[in-house]
Write a structure and sequence with these properties.
The protein has 9 helices and 13 strands. It is an alpha/beta fold. The protein has 2 domains: about 80 residues, Met-10+ protein-like domains (GMP Synthetase, Chain A, domain 3, 2-Layer Sandwich), CATH 3.30.300; about 170 residues, 3-Layer(aba) Sandwich (Rossmann fold). Strand 7, helix 5 and strand 8 form a beta-alpha-beta unit. It is globular, with a radius of gyration of 20 Å. The model has no long low-confidence stretch (mean pLDDT about 95). The structure holds S-adenosylmethionine. S-adenosylmethionine binds next to helix 5 and strand 8.
Length: about 280
């Protein structure tokens, strides 16, 4: 049953509309977008939700926007267990994470499936902004790559990434690396690593790392380049960044994979590096 239907006896139409349109469920945590006007009823709203959905143990609300280089959007618990750590199940994998210490979006489930279905046997993959390992672990678990280098700058994300590699038994395929993708790509290059596939899921500023991705590319490397783009000029900005690179690149596909706000989309351009080496 829809949440608004469950709450219709305790909230009037205006209050129901102030509950927002979207609810995210991460593991046992349900996150609401509530407005100040219904703050006095929040605890009760949480209790009704907990009573209805047996798999939900925590009801929380968003506190502000996604911030900083770690891309964390914090929540505040309004009902249920006082915790923000949970285990989220997705695409045959389990991810332990703390929503207040790491980035994680359940809305990318089908995008992650799209990517792991493309992975071919024996590939070397670099996940430049791996977070708690969602793309990396799903590729390792559901496809058959040789090795995935998973990089993240956030210490907490790195801690969960290491745990998730173990939980999902992909220790032989995924190498967790703590650090700045700029520095790590240079180090990988020095070690002679050339990727078949690079995942660049930092849509806020991934254009600043395109040159770093090229350091570990070879002829035929597939790059999944995510960015937030305005619907008015959609892909042209990102296409221009790609065109301005020194290496030749062939755009294979362009797609949206979610909406951040009205007229702004999370997009992914898949392009292939074409070079002589
Ligand atoms: C949008 S999140 C994506 C996480 C993951 N790919 C996922 O889908 O759940 C971006 C991640 O990039 C990390 N990050 C930001 N800047 C970075 C950098 N310079 N080097 C490595 N990681 C970085 C953040 O800590 C964050 O976990």
């Amino acid at each position: 049953m829809n949440i608004k239907t469950i709450l219709k006896d305790m909230l009037n139409d205006k209050e129901l509309s102030e509950l927002g349109r979207s609810f995210d469920t991460v593991g046992e945590i349900m996150i609401l977008s509530t407005q100040k006007s219904i703050s006095k009823k929040e605890k009760k709203i949480g209790e009704v939700i907990l009573g209805h959905y047996k798999n939900i143990k925590v009801v929380a609300k968003w506190k502000g926007k996604t911030k900083g280089k770690t891309r964390i959007r914090k929540v505040e618990v309004i009902s249920g267990d006082k915790r923000t750590e949970t285990i989220h199940k997705e695409n045959n994998c389990r991810f332990k994470l703390d929503i207040n210490k790491t980035y994680f979006s359940p809305r990318l489930v089908s995008e992650r499936e799209r990517i792991y279905k493309k992975v071919k046997k024996g590939e070397i993959i670099v996940d430049m902004f791996a977070g708690v390992g969602a793309f990396s672990v799903e590729c390792a678990k559901n496809s058959n790559p040789k090795l995935i280098y998973s990089v993240d700058i956030n210490r907490s994300a790195f801690k969960y990434l290491k745990e998730n590699i173990k939980i999902n038994k992909v220790e032989d395929k995924v190498i967790p690396i703590l650090g700045n993708a700029k520095k790590i790509t240079s180090e990988l290059r020095k070690k002679g690593v050339k990727a078949d596939r690079i995942i660049m899921n930092l849509p806020e500023s991934s254009e600043n790392f395109l040159k770093d991705a090229l350091k570990i590319s070879k002829n035929g490397t597939m790059i999944h380049f995510y960015h937030f783009l305005d619907s008015s000029d959609m892909y042209s900005k990102a296409e221009n960044w790609i065109k301005s690179l020194k290496a030749k690149a062939k755009i294979i596909s362009k797609k949206t994979c979610g909406q951040r706000k009205p007229y702004e989309y999370r997009t992914c351009i898949d392009f292939k590096v074409e070079s002589d080496d």
